[in-house]
UniProtKB/TrEMBL annotation:
Region called Disordered, residue ranges: 63-87
Keywords: Aminoacyl-tRNA synthetase, ATP-binding, Cytoplasm, Ligase, Nucleotide-binding, Protein biosynthesis
A Pfam family this chain is assigned to: tRNA-synt_2
Reactions this protein catalyses: tRNA(Asn) + L-asparagine + ATP = L-asparaginyl-tRNA(Asn) + AMP + diphosphate + H(+)
Protein name: asparagine--tRNA ligase
Residue span, Aminoacyl-transfer RNA synthetases class-II family profile domain: 246-541
E.C. no: 6.1.1.22
NCBIfam families in the record: asnS
Subcellular location: Cytoplasm
Major subcellular site: cytoplasm
GO cellular component entries: cytoplasm
PANTHER family in the record: ASPARAGINE--TRNA LIGASE, CYTOPLASMIC, ASPARTYL/LYSYL-TRNA SYNTHETASE
């Protein structure tokens, strides 16, 4: 039987039958469809297109091709058969599963509602835990659920009818459950979070999360683009790493509050909407405040200073805002600023206070039963800082940088007055490898309020605390106490002093030597938890181009 093949107008699908009008596209496909065919192929000649008998070599090739198409077809058929059998088996299983109803055995002792963190205190007791399915493994006759309630994780084991029920077979990651069961210590050689597991006797589904395309694991996967992960921050927060950092963050804030209580420093809550600047106009977020110009605060320092006469030493934990144009790993547009202000102190007192607060805070975090192990997990090599910190003057840092061949921003040797930019600062800190109190910065690269050193008026009584891997985590200084000198500072910076009358009054109505500092919460966390960027240490980070979710 003659079968026609035409590479140009033919088709290798159901539309082709092998006639001149509806030829196949390839000889292999033609033979596959019509094994007994006599192949006639289209050929370009000078007279135009012509149909000729296939050449022996092309026929040999076509036979081979047809053979492999046949094999492929057989394989696909087998696979389809297997899938259909599996579906049937699955359907039968589901039908069986549907017959099982899960009911609570009312003869069991009443279950005590507990949080997962306290599970170790209830061994052999019947309890009720509620949370989200963190991990799920279904096996023949057994189901393993790792339940998460924010306070911890527990492995729950379902067996028999509970494991085989339709309700269990349709569970999905991130569904919420109320689980009832008895807490058992794990036998030797088995492992699960906390060394215990919950032998489940009954459970209820509170909220079933989607399966398939909309499933949680489809939404965020390892290796997903960071900006998509940021869009899904509300979901990524549920992950083990990010939630661990947030727990350390909570412990850090609690620890520093405890240290401030011990140091007799009182907490205040200054406003976030202000009409003054603290750290330069270029990073101010402007807003319209009932027709007046206002800003989101860059620092609560000025307000803290005004509290000294009323409350003594004060601190606040408040959001600060910086319109940072640069994309760096340590800059956010909004960050949690821990600031303190101390009255009647010397510069040395201030430095000792700062290193003490940092050291004690870290100590309390490490001693915390929740956060301590999480820091070890996130940052196994972490070494707690020791007192006293290394002290280094700005001028000494310049010498160190020049000796170590680290150039300034223009690619030249550092000279007095140069800013030590982020990269150079981090290189130096990482090489030295211990916390550094870097002091006495030049007047021109620091803020208007900083007090000049008596022995060298070119420099200020200022300090940056530098930590390995992050660099600057704290900036502080002694403040100008003299009204006239302060007003000159405003003038130098081109700031209209009128809006600052309340701040100037702090000097007029009983001045005193005082100083303070600001500590970036996300920066100290990046150091403590070994995170590459401060973005991983903020709940919903804000930075250039991102103000959602
Ligand atoms: O050095 P800064 O700008 O100092 C002040 O704002 C002072 N008024 C604080 C004071 O003396 N009360 O900021 C202090 C700290 C920095 O060391 C850094 O840890 C953090 O705040 N910080 C930032 N953290 C994240 N993103 C940013 N854009 C930050 N800017 C400063």
């Amino acid at each position: 039987m003659e079968v026609f093949v035409n590479e140009k107008i033919g088709a290798d699908d159901a539309g082709a039958v092998g006639t001149k009008e509806k030829p196949f596209k390839t000889p292999a496909y033609a033979l596959f469809k019509v094994p007994e065919a006599k192949l006639i192929v289209a050929k370009e000649t000078e007279q135009g297109e012509e149909y000729v008998d296939i050449s022996p070599s092309a026929l040999k090739k076509a036979k081979k091709g047809a053979e492999s198409l046949k094999k492929k077809e057989e394989k696909a058929r087998k696979q389809a058969e297997e899938a259909a059998a599996k579906d049937a088996e699955e359907n039968a299983k589901m039908l069986e599963a549907m017959k099982i109803t899960i009911v609570e055995d009312k003869s069991l002792p009443p279950a005590k509602k507990i949080k997962i963190m306290s599970i170790g205190k209830h061994i052999e007791e019947r309890v009720k835990v509620q949370g989200w399915i963190h991990r799920l493994r279904l096996q023949k006759g057994l189901a393993f659920i790792v339940l998460r309630d924010g306070t911890g994780y527990v492995q729950c084991v379902l067996s028999g009818d509970l494991a085989n029920a339709y309700q269990t077979l349709s569970l999905t990651i991130e569904s919420t459950l109320s689980i009832y069961g008895t807490i058992r210590k794990l036998p030797e050689g088995k492992s699960a979070p906390g060394g215990v597991e919950l032998a489940v006797d009954y459970y209820e589904v509170v909220g079933l999360a989607p399966s398939g395309k909309e499933s949680f694991t489809n939404k965020i996967q390892e290796g997903t683009d960071p900006s998509i992960l940021m869009d899904q921050r509300h979901l990524t927060l549920r992950g083990e790493t990010l939630s661990a950092v947030m727990k350390v963050r909570a412990a850090l804030l609690a620890a520093i509050r405890r240290v401030y209580i011990e140091e007799s420093v009182t907490e205040v809550t200054p406003p976030c909407m202000v009409q003054t600047q603290v750290e330069g106009g270029s990073t101010l977020f402007k807003m319209d405040y009932y027709g007046e110009e206002a800003f989101l605060t860059q620092s609560s320092q000025l307000y803290l200073e005004t509290c000294l006469p009323a409350l003594g030493d004060v601190y606040c934990i408040q959001e600060s805002f910086r319109a940072e144009k640069s994309h760096t790993r340590r800059h956010l547009s909004e960050y949690t600023h821990i600031e303190a202000e101390l009255a009647f102190v010397t510069f040395d007192d201030l430095l000792s206070h700062i290193e003490r607060v940092i050291t004690k805070t870290v100590q309390y975090v490490l001693e915390d039963p929740t956060a301590g192990p999480l820091v070890k997990q996130l940052n196994p090599g972490f070494v707690a800082p020791q007192l006293p910190f290394k002290r280094m003057q700005y001028i000494e840092a310049l010498d160190w940088l020049n000796e170590n061949g680290i150039p300034n921003e223009d690619g030249e040797k550092f000279k007095f007055g140069d800013d030590i930019a982020e990269a150079a600062e981090r290189k130096m800190t990482d090489t030295i490898g211990v916390p550094i109190l870097l002091t006495r910065f030049p007047v021109e690269i620091k803020s208007f309020y900083m007090k000049k050193c008596v022995d060298d008026p070119r420099v200020t009584e200022s300090v940056d605390v530098l930590m390995p891997t992050v660099g600057e985590i704290t900036g502080g200084s002694m403040r100008i106490e003299d009204t006239q000198e302060l007003l000159e500072g405003f003038k130098r910076e081109g700031i209209d002093a009128k809006s600052y009358y309340w701040f100037v009054d702090q000097r007029i109505y009983g001045t005193c030597p005082h100083g303070g500092y600001g500590l970036g919460t996300e920066r100290i966390l990046a150091w403590l938890c070994n995170r590459f960027t401060v973005r991983d240490c903020s709940l919903y980070p804000r930075f250039t181009g991102r103000c959602k979710p």
